[in-house]
Amino acid sequence: MSSSPLSPLQRARSDLGGVAEPDRVEVLQRFFQTGEGQYGEGDVFLGVRVPNVRKVARAHRDLSLVDLQSLLRSKFHEERQLALFILVIQFQRGDAALQKQIYDLYLANTERINNWDLVDGSAHQIVGGYLLERGRGPLRRLARSKSLWEQRIAIIATLTFIKQEEFEDTFELAEMLLLHPHDLIHKAVGWMLREVGNRDREAMETFLKPRHHTMPRTMLRYAIEKLPESRRREYLEGRVR
After folding, report:
1. Confidence of residue 2 (pLDDT cuts 50, 70, 90)
2. Class of domain 133-241
3. What is the pTM of this model?
């Protein structure tokens, strides 16, 4: 008697498991700081490389939202990542109704989008993409959240606006998060400010000049990374005028 065929969700999980490299798990757990008290505490890895997760995502891009919800609830980091990559694909291909469903699903599951790579690979495409032609109020609510990951989602989402030469939301959220205690927010804010500077150096420096003395050093270093060496030194030595 033949066994029952695998469901689409089971096939996706099987394909993902098939490209796992168990000997990489320990390295990933250290890299994503999964130890007690660290930001990724308790996360579990299969050992799948990101390009392979993307390959599986493309092969299973038509998974239902119900199945993607199941993947988002997985204890395995790469299964949650797979869900997010597929949601990005579906969002970019979908009509307005599907995009709204994906956006709502995303925000309803932010507790499962719980590491920087998961946020960075999805927030600007889905949250930023949905809000591009809409009010940006949800980003302020996320930035005021007590969740580190919701705060990172808020600032990373603005990358979509930056690419459209819209910088005000980035500056407003950067101001809200300027004195945040966590390094992951310092890096995210600095990164988005650098992205602004890549397009409009004057706008970025107008934001930085009155704040560079008080912003976290990591945030400043990320923001000024692409400036000429002499200008970077002026910022780091507090000699900017």
Report:
1. low
2. mainly alpha
3. 0.95
